[in-house]
């Protein structure tokens, strides 16, 4: 009771803050329209297009810098020279040798943008896009804003990352609109693709090692390389805040390394401002769709190789629907930092000496990163199928087509009133929309006898229970990757709904607990708990699902379907986290290492499923959810990491984990299993490993 | 209340009695006040000679009451649409400047048709009546020290030369607070008397030297309820003695720069301290604001020049006991006075270094392809410690500004030569006229050494792509600094407001600071509804071992703005924040005044402010020197 008084205060403030929230969210409703850039490609010569005059305007009209000159600027910079001397003193090597090392690193890293390669890609991608996609839609107003921004300030392009296609697509679009081509930070793994790696390099990619934690020299070369390009405005910098492709289609919590690098020149006064441009790339169907599900289930990611790419040609025969690319409003770092970071604290330290960012700066960069990712989410275009997938996942046993249609229409209304960026075909009858969505995603769902259900890949021959489970999980996870796309729209009200259904008298505390718990799985800006709570209340009140008399939040009569839909939406996450808690409490051995954790949870759960039969939480088999759950428990101090001789061991505070489990599972029971029934040889890991060894058989693709 | 009155009465009576006793005791020494004044003069020059200074007590007789400088000198656009500079005092005087109008109209989007004339005469009704402290006035009369409470005198001392101050004068706005009276002490002893009386009668004193402050330092605090007396030092303008053995001169602090230089020159010496305001600013003012002169590379800044300072504070006179060239006697007490901005007392006499007039003086200039190259060159010159007496780098905008001030060319030949030079620089050397910048130089010393020095500097410049561009260009650069304030008055006649501000910054941040501040100004103007592109221009005016002084000009056409001064102030405020964020100092030589007080804490830390406060509290517990500058 006492605790809930806090929530009451928030509710009092709500009446005022609702309007603020409303104002904050409203501008996003005014979104730009799209143009299909493939339309012109279908009507005119691709060759002509690839060879046309291309003369983009750069920042302050600077002339582009030759790759070699750029390298010289970097190698001769005060910043790098300082670190070279430092490393030389520490290692005892002559500075010349370190300098040479730096030069080699730079050689390995640097892009070699060549217009001829860009033209080649312009031609080849035109052909490919036309076969793969129905439309590639771009908001031209966003392009105009970007064009303006590029001339005024150094620009950083921050696209969402769902597919390998992303950065080729980005460069393709910028080329199409005669905008300066970006230089793109790419993972070193691409370098493995001999010919293609070099091609990408010549189209503007530069390569960074995935981990170089303690390597001072590498960090210095890398950050100076990026900053030199940024400061001089030679080209827009492009990188993925999420760090890697999101296999789940949920936005990943941002990585800060590169963002720190591109923001620092502003704090040091080396540039007047830096503009961050959030870009949302939404695919109607992702090329890597089923690959991702398998990856999440532990079939390792295929190594990037040219031959692999060639094999992937078969995807050319499929229809992947449309792509929407939305260039968001450029965000000025200067305006964001106003009043948050005191730049004069940088006055007392030489600017060329590398220094760990101050706390104030770190939290600013972190906050900025989250805001940008949220802006990406806001402008993600959602297709009707996304809504249908959300419904199907709550009815795994299948649904009547008519019911699905009816509920999809209902959900559409809800999504629209929550400002979802829904691309629902104009003037088409609902039945038509539903059926064409089902047709495009026939690999995931099928209609038989008026019922819609998920398609489960069936390999030839006899199937072990584990294999059946694996196949089922693949189809659920594939489907979940669509549902995940809409989560950011519903997340806040859904957490509130869960909080209300579970613990109606301490709603805010419960909300806040869930918020904290899920902050690795979803994009929740640090420190925004109250604001998110208010937004959730506002949205639920707005759609009539709850009422807020003086001191309370109560469900209305008509609110039941909304709240139970929301509850169902988050159910897999609640269950998944619970399974992890269970595992840690009941099963985890003393010296469990971090490495063992994922396979162990997976086998624990698969055994749980196979032998109890009635569990539906396939999603906990996903390594993504397992990692996020562990991260949450670590953050909440329920689990600690201890480093013992090269091995990181997890120390479980069973009491804490148990109590978290309790809160998560207030109304839910998971039946206990009989310990003796566990047999490691039957575990799903083994199945996954087998699959990996054999390579993916065609039967798994379908 | 009653008891309060009683106690203050008692205090007053006690003080009166004390002073009467003191008068008796000192009578033998001091004589009566009439004699003091006479003695002052005898003390001063050794002969009862009359005051030779340029500045009369009634300043308004020769100077503008609502603008810069002498009444007879001003820019105007004549009927032929050509600019001319009236009067006979300056090199540009009486000349027509054919390019100025075009430059003016193109730069600001202004038009000579849109006039914004100033109120011609002071309307006495806008001046609040004086709040006199009768007892103080009575006592002052007895000393024989001249004073006035006429509106013109008081208004003249109520302001410096900030934009908002001059703008208000031109508009004929009502004054909130001006000094209630003006006193003109004749010598140190007069000042002692005045300060004693001020303490006795709790009167607020505001020292006034040349009146060229640009930090709102002379503004009377509106909340001041006591009688405010402006202490005008202009009549304390004698060189009391000159010591050729030690090369020092002992000078009264009210002397203004041009008089000091003229008088020293008569004896074959110079001080070498030449701030841009030297025509009007005073020695005491330089000390009180930590002034910097154009030729500091040879002669040093004011803190390097002073050997001995005598100042009168409410606690008494502060001075050192010897003239040793350097001492280790705890923190240098001079540094409490240097930069105290009139908050602690009045500087009355200064012993300062002098130098023989240099045998040879030569101007010069170097053109660089761009500002970056110019800054790199100045940095190298500073590194090699071979800076000439003055070296300044004007940016491209200022280069064009300087060009607009070229007088009518008399002969076709000069015209031809000019054209040829331009052709050489822009066509043959490939300099972009919209990028190139010019450094102006002034060398001093004996002829041979000057020529040698010149070569060294030009050689360095050449390595940064600099081309020597002649003496004339160099000299014109320095003319601009002396007439810029007159030009501001011209701008204000045509809806253009302008101001300058300065900072100092480490070398590695010079370029970024210049660029960011300019961009900030442009952006702020846009955001605040300024309809026309502002002029933002900067120059590097001083070089040091570890950094440089940067001087900004900022001006815009204010047509269409409701409150141009307020807009201007907001932009300047933003520009200062930008300077601080980019590693610049709060001020290099203008001082803090009241204009930049808000940043003092951040600039010198809380402890630093506390230190200054405790000095103020000890020296002036009653806040007699109540101009409220600095803290």
List the helices and strands and how they pair.
The complex is a heterodimer of chains A (702) and B (631).
Chain A: H1 2-25, E1 35-36, H2 37-43, H3 46-51, H4 67-76, H5 78-91, H6 95-109, H7 115-132, E2 135-138, H8 140-152, E3 155-159, H9 165-176, E4 183-187, H10 194-202, E5 205-208, H11 216-232, E6 237-238, H12 257-267, E7 275-283, H13 289-296, H14 306-311, E8 322-327, E9 331-332, H15 333-337, H16 359-378, H17 384-393, E10 399-400, H18 401-417, H19 430-440, E11 445-448, E12 451-454, H20 465-502, H21 507-517, H22 529-542, E13 546-547, E14 554-555, H23 560-587, H24 594-612, H25 623-635, E15 639-644, E16 647-652, H26 654-664, H27 684-694, H28 698-701
Parallel strand pairs in A: 2-8, 3-6, 3-7, 4-5, 4-6
Antiparallel strand pairs in A: 1-2, 7-8, 7-9, 10-12, 11-12, 13-14, 15-16
Chain B: H1 2-30, H2 33-45, E1 75-77, E2 83-85, E3 96-97, H3 100-108, H4 134-143, E4 147-148, H5 151-156, H6 163-171, E5 181-183, H7 188-201, E6 204-208, E7 228-232, E8 239-243, E9 248-252, H8 257-266, E10 269-270, H9 283-289, H10 296-299, H11 302-305, E11 306-313, E12 316-318, H12 334-337, E13 346-353, E14 355-356, E15 360-368, H13 371-383, E16 390-394, H14 396-404, H15 412-428, E17 437-445, H16 447-463, E18 467-468, H17 471-493, E19 496-506, H18 510-527, E20 535-543, E21 547-557, H19 564-581, H20 600-619
Parallel strand pairs in B: 5-7, 6-7
Antiparallel strand pairs in B: 1-2, 2-3, 4-5, 8-9, 9-13, 10-14, 11-12, 11-13, 15-17, 15-18, 16-17, 16-20, 19-21, 20-21
Helix pairs in contact in B: 3-14, 4-7, 13-16, 18-19
Which geometry of chain B do the CA atoms define? globular
Average pLDDT of chain A, to the nearest integer?
Answer: 84
Strand content of chain B: 15-25%
Largest protein interface?
A: A-B, 11 and 13 residues
- In DSSP terms (H or I, runs of 4 or more residues), the helix count of chain B works out at 20
Main sheet: strands, sense, barrel of chain A? 9 strands, mixed
- Helix/strand-derived category of chain B reads alpha+beta
Helix coverage percent of chain B: 40-55%
How many angstroms does the end-to-end distance of chain A come to?
54 Å
Quote the distance from N terminus to C terminus of chain B: 31 Å
* Global structural class of chain A: alpha/beta
The coarse silhouette of chain A is: globular
Give Rg of chain B in angstroms: 25 Å
- Kindly estimate the percentage of residues of chain A that lie in beta strands according to DSSP: 5-15%
Per DSSP E runs of 2 or more residues, the count of β-strands of chain B stands at 21
Number of helices of chain A: 28
CA-based gyration radius of chain A: 26 Å
């Amino acid at each position: 009771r006492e605790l809930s008084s806090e929530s009451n205060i928030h509710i009092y403030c709500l009446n005022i803050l609702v309007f603020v929230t409303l104002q904050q969210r409203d501008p996003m409703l005014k979104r730009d329209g799209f143009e299909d850039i493939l339309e012109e490609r279908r009507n005119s010569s691709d060759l002509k297009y690839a060879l046309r005059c291309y003369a983009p305007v750069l920042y302050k009209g600077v002339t582009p810098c030759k790759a070699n000159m750029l390298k010289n600027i970097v190698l001769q910079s005060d910043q790098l020279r300082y670190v070279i001397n430092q490393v030389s003193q520490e290692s005892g090597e002559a500075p010349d040798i370190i300098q040479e090392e730096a030069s080699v690193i730079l050689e390995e890293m640097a892009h070699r943008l060549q217009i001829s390669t860009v033209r080649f890609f312009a031609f080849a991608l035109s052909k490919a896009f036309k076969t793969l996609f129905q439309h590639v839609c771009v908001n031209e107003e966003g392009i105009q804003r970007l064009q303006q921004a590029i001339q005024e300030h150094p620009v950083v392009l921050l696209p969402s990352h769902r597919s390998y296609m992303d950065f080729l697509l980005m460069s393709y679009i910028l080329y199409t609109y005669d905008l300066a081509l970006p230089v793109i930070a790419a993972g070193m793994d691409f370098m493995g693709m001999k010919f293609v790696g070099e091609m990408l390099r010549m189209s503007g990619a530069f390569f960074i090692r995935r981990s170089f934690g303690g390597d001072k020299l590498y960090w210095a070369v890398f950050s100076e390389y990026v900053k030199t390009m940024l400061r001089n405005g030679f080209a827009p910098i492009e990188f993925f805040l999420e760090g890697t492709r999101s296999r789940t289609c949920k936005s990943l919590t941002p990585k800060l390394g590169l963002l720190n690098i591109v923001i620092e020149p502003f704090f040091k006064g080396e540039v007047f401002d830096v503009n961050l441009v959030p870009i949302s790339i939404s695919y109607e169907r992702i090329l890597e769709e089923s690959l991702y599900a398998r990856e999440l289930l532990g079939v390792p990611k295929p190594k990037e190789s040219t031959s692999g790419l060639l094999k992937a040609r078969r995807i050319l025969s499929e229809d992947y629907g449309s792509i929407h690319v939305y260039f968001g409003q450029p965000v000025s770092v200067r305006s964001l930092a106003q009043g948050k970071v005191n730049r004069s604290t940088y006055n007392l330290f030489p600017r060329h000496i590398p220094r760990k960012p101050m706390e104030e700066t770190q939290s600013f960069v972190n906050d900025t990163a989250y805001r940008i990712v949220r802006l990406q989410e806001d402008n993600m275009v959602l297709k009707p199928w996304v809504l249908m997938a959300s419904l199907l996942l709550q009815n795994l046993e299948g649904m009547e087509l008519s019911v699905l249609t009816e509920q999809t229409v209902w959900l559409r209304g809800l999504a629209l009133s929550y400002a979802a960026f829904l691309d629902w075909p104009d003037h088409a009858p609902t039945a038509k929309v539903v059926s064409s969505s089902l047709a495009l995603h026939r690999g995931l769902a099928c209609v038989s006898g008026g019922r819609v259900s998920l398609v489960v890949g069936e390999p030839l021959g006899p199937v072990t229970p584990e294999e059946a489970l694996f196949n089922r999980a693949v189809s659920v996870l594939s489907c979940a990757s669509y549902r995940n796309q809409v989560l950011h729209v519903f997340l806040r009200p859904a957490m509130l709904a869960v909080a209300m259904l579970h613990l109606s008298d301490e709603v805010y505390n419960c909300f806040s607990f869930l918020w904290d718990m899920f902050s690795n799985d979803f994009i929740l800006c640090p420190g925004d708990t109250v604001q998110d709570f208010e937004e959730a209340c506002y949205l639920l009140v707005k759609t009539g699902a709850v009422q807020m008399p003086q001191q309370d939040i109560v469900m209305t009569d008509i609110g039941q379907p909304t709240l139970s839909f929301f509850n169902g939406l988050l159910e897999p996450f609640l269950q998944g986290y619970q399974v992890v808690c269970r595992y840690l409490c009941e099963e985890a051995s003393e010296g469990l290492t971090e490495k063992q954790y994922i396979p162990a949870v997976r086998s624990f759960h698969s055994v749980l499923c196979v032998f109890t039969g009635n569990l539906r939480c396939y999603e906990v088999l996903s390594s993504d959810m397992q990692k996020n759950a562990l991260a949450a428990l670590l953050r909440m101090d329920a689990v600690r990491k201890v480093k013992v001789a090269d091995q990181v061991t997890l120390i479980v505070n069973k009491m804490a984990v148990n109590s978290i489990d309790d809160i998560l599972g207030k109304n839910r029971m998971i039946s206990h299993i009989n310990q003796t029934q566990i047999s490691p040889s039957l575990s799903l890991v083994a199945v996954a490993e087998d699959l990996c060894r054999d390579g993916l058989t065609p039967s798994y693709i379908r | 209340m009653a008891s309060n009155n009683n106690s203050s009465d008692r205090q007053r009576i006690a003080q009166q009695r004390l002073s009467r006793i003191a008068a008796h005791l000192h009578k033998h020494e001091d004589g009566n006040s009439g004699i003091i004044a006479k003695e002052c003069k005898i003390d001063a020059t050794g002969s009862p000679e009359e005051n030779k200074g340029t500045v009369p007590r009634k300043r308004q007789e020769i100077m503008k009451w609502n603008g810069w400088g002498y009444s007879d000198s001003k820019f105007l656009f004549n009927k032929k649409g050509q600019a001319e500079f009236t009067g006979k005092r300056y090199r540009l005087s009486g000349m027509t400047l054919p390019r100025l109008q075009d430059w003016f109209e193109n730069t600001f989007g202004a038009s000579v048709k849109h006039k914004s004339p100033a109120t011609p005469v002071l309307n006495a009704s806008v001046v609040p009546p004086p709040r006199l402290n009768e007892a103080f006035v009575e006592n002052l009369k007895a000393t024989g020290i001249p004073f006035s409470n006429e509106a013109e005198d008081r208004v003249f001392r109520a302001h410096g030369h900030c934009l908002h101050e001059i703008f208000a004068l031109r508009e004929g706005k009502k004054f909130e607070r001006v000094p209630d009276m003006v006193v003109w002490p004749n010598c140190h002893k007069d000042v002692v008397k005045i300060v004693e009386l001020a303490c006795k009668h709790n009167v607020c004193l505001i020292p006034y030297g040349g009146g060229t402050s640009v930090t709102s330092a002379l503004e009377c605090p509106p909340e001041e309820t006591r009688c405010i007396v402006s202490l005008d030092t202009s009549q304390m303008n004698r060189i009391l003695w000159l010591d050729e053995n030690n090369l020092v001169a002992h000078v009264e602090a009210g002397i203004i720069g041009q008089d000091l230089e003229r008088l020293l020159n008569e004896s074959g010496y110079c001080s070498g301290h030449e701030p841009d305001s030297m025509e009007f600013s005073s020695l005491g003012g330089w000390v009180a604001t930590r002034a910097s002169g154009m030729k500091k590379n040879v002669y040093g800044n004011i803190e390097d020049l002073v050997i001995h300072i005598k100042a009168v504070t409410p606690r008494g006179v502060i001075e050192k006991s010897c003239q040793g060239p350097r001492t280790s006697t705890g923190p240098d007490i001079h540094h409490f006075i240097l930069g105290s901005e009139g908050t602690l007392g009045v500087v009355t006499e200064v012993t300062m270094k002098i130098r023989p007039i240099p045998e040879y003086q030569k101007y010069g200039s170097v053109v660089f392809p761009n500002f970056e190259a110019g800054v790199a060159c100045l940095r190298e010159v500073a590194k090699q410690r071979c800076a000439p007496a003055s070296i300044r780098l004007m940016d491209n905008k200022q280069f064009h500004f300087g060009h607009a001030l070229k007088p009518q060319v008399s002969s076709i030949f000069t015209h031809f030569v000019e054209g040829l030079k331009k052709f050489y620089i822009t066509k043959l050397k490939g300099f972009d006229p919209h990028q190139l910048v010019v450094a102006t130089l002034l060398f001093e010393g004996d002829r041979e050494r000057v020529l040698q020095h010149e070569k060294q500097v030009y050689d360095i410049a050449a390595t940064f792509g600099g081309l020597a561009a002649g003496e004339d260009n160099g000299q014109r650069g320095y003319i601009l600094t002396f007439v810029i304030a007159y030009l501001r008055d011209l701008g204000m006649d045509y809806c253009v407001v302008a101001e300058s501000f300065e900072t100092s910054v480490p070398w590695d941040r010079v370029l970024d600071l210049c660029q960011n501040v300019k961009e900030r100004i442009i952006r702020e103007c846009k955001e605040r509804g300024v309809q026309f592109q502002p002029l933002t221009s900067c120059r590097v005016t001083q070089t040091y071992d570890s950094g440089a002084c940067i001087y900004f000009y900022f001006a815009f056409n204010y047509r269409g703005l409701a409150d141009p001064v307020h807009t201007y102030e907001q932009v300047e405020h933003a520009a200062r924040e930008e300077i601080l964020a980019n590693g610049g100092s709060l001020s290099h030589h203008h001082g803090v005044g009241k204009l930049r007080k808000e940043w003092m804490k951040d600039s010198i830390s809380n402890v630093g402010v506390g230190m200054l406060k405790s000095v103020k509290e000890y020296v002036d517990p009653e806040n007699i020197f109540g101009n409220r500058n600095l803290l």
